[in-house]
Fold:
Amino acid sequence: MCELIPPRADLTEDQWLRTAGPGLADAAVPDDTPDAAAAAHGVHRRTLLGGAVAGAALAALPFGAQQRAVAAARAGAADRFPLPSAPGPSGEYAVLITGDAGTGKAEQYAVTAAAREICRTEGVGLAVGLGDNIYENGPESDHDSEFDEKFERPNTGIDVPWLMVLGNHDCSGLVPGSGGDPSRGDREVAYAATSRRWYMPSRYYNVTLPAGGGRPDPLIEFFALDTNPVASSVVQLDPHYRWDGPYMREQRRWLDTALRASRARWKVVLGHHPYLNNGKHGSAGSYDGFVIGHYTSGVHLKELYEEVVCGRADVIMSGHDHTLQILEPTDRTRGTRQLVCGAASKTGDGTAHFTHPAAWQDFSRHGFMLLKVSAGAMTIDAYTVDVATKKARLAHRTRTTRPVAAGVPVGAPAGVR
Ligand SMILES: [Fe+2]
Structure:
């Protein structure tokens, strides 16, 4: 979620801070900044100082290096929870989907407690974290205690690899949620080397799960994106991360090549910022009501989704809005379905702001989803969670039997239990 929205598109973080008031800009100066000054502006000192020292983290990896990093991650620490190597006895993989989880507060613990029970009964072997993994502006180092407070401890017992993607709060500098300092995301990549469950071999990556039974083609392939450089609410100052800079050009080339080459039966794109969204942040191209400029509106992410992803991936899974939405595939999406699953710690405002066709949606409750895939079907279960009792309720199930690559998919919502 973007708690702070700039007054107009295409401001830098510094310009935004000065527009917000001289006191806030001054509070960003390190060393002698009193906590009280930051608190008076509603911004934690840790947040400000973190932004002031950003930029010294790892460089983004080119595609070849990424592939080597993936291989290293797969073969890494002996005690790392392994990626599932075959479908379960029913022929299915079960994957937990969560988003916008990283507060470390009671609501996150309640949702993960409820999810833990479902993971046990459903045989979950893999999990996904759809970004905003560490509120409010990402970790301060690659061994920050926030990794423990906002990820490891809440998720204890969900002992599987978590495919993590970068959200705007993971990549923010001076303005929490702006997405204006992508280099901070490198700390989350570095952390993956020392965690048993945090899987992020590079800033964007793909993962395949085998079909089993000696079949050569994967059953499912995940493509995890870094959407921040083209969805930030401020201008990217670092030329490397500009909307048309080398990082995004390379990521687009990688995604296009990887999707084209994929032989997986099911293809799932993971990106923090949604393509379509009925929640308050709106859809790519008009995020938060902005429709001008290279940033804020997400217009270049819209282009990426429409030109590279739609019609090739079965599902785009996103967070950012703290809601639960299973949108319908349409002609506009060329058969690709959009999910929004960002209610693992916070909730929406209870209101549908837009009218994209939805199989099911909820704007007020916490929750998570479960993806189940076999050779014959892809099923998405949406669970809402009662925070007081820490119990999950299956609210909706959507089942699809035909991959997008095979033509227009058949969606068969099975209703509410
Ligand atoms: Fe977000």
